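User: Predict the structure for this protein chain, please.
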Amino acid sequence: MLYDNALLTLAYTEAHQLTRDPFYRQVATETLDYTLREMTAPGGAFYSTQDADSEGEEGKFYVWGEAEIRGVLGPESGEFACRVWGVTEAGNFEGHNILCRARPDDADATRLGLSVEEFRAKLAEAKRRLYDVRAKRVWPGRDEKILTAWNGLMIGAMAKAGAAFGEPRYVAAAARAADYLLAHLRAADGRLFRTAGDGLPAKLTGYLEDYAFLADALVTLYEATFDAKHLRAAVELADAMLAHFADPAGGGFFFTADDHEALIARTKEVHDGSTPSGNAVAVTVLLRLAKLCGRRDFAAKAEEVLRGSRAVMEDHPSAAGQMLVALDFYLGPVDEVAVVGPAAEARAVLDVFHGAFRPSQVLATHDPAAGDPPIDLIPLLADRPAVGGAVTTYVCHDFVCRAPLVGAAAAADYVGVAQKAT
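Assistant: Here is the predicted structure, written as structure tokens:
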């Protein structure tokens, strides 16, 4: 499922930001590489699912026999692969083997008498050879629907991971997918459609999760690219969300818009399921936009929904994970970070902020050489000079800023101290 890969990527990216364990980065990047390789449409958007079945058998495309692996890799590499992935003649799935790791790289390297670098090189070569053989099998089916909400999740994952790991190809892929959605799944009046096929007309009226997931992804994409068009689009979607999905009597957002076809009941989604609830992500993006754009109406609606969700968070916290994340952001303090100065110097500072685990943060930047900042959209950038022409970082809370951090080293020191405190 596209959404599984997106949500897992986010989790592993944040785990790497917090721990610096390279294994977490490896999992995140391999997941994104799979998505780009096998789940991306020619236009840049992402397909929905890949089947578990092929040739009428569950898992046939993905599983391996012990003799098959040894035959592909040879005696030495075959023994290495079987030990690393726990491959046996009996198998672990209906007489076959699902390849899975039980130990981290360093533990397996020690067990096999290799350095970590040697181990990783051997493992990468084994993967490559096995993939080449597997690619000749009958491929499973693929659901090539493009769903706005699920694409939003993957756009956010691509943008966040790309910024965190300094991998511009992921950020570029996120931007390409976002451009596709905004061009092909948004009507002339700015309203979203639910789904389309690549190169085919969009259809079905968008639901709350389509607006919330895509708007949140666009904020993340702005913080990776600092292209104001992404933030403007996020604000437009948030305004549409308030206009057409908010309950005028209070208590959150409806799943369908006010002009959607009449249903027996107009429901509200408040519990997380396979994906976070639309209400929870709506609160999340409204809070982020309130901090970046100074929109008090966004903050007020988010607070209203949080108060209305108190019972769910108290009584069923495991079903309200994203709402609890939003609550944590709301309670703060949130660092409102403005990085001002020459683009090359600012890049070094931004990389520091991107690489650290800083969930309670919004990030904006401006190069004075590019002209005036877009303070109509991002008031955080107003009256923020580059002190002495050097890159200058302003860390603010509710638009009240501490003493500016002049130079890249000062910003790095601040992030390092804050990370230790976390």
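The longest helix spans residues 66-85.
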